[in-house]
Amino acid sequence: MTPIAVTIAGSDSGGGAGIQADLKTFSALGVYGASVITALTAQNTRGVQGIHDVPAEFVARQIDSVFSDLTVGAVKIGMLSRPDVIAAVADGLARHAGGIPVVLDPVMVATSGDRLIAGEAVAVLRARLLPRVDLITPNRPEAAVLLDEPDGDDGAGQASRLLALGARAALVKGGHGTGPESVDHLAMGDGFTLRLAAPRVATRNTHGTGCTLSAAIAAFLARGMPLPEAVPAAKDYLTAALAAADRLAIGGGHGPVHHFHAWWSEGP
Question: How many CA atoms lie within 13 A of 248 on its CB side?
Answer without folding.
Answer: 26
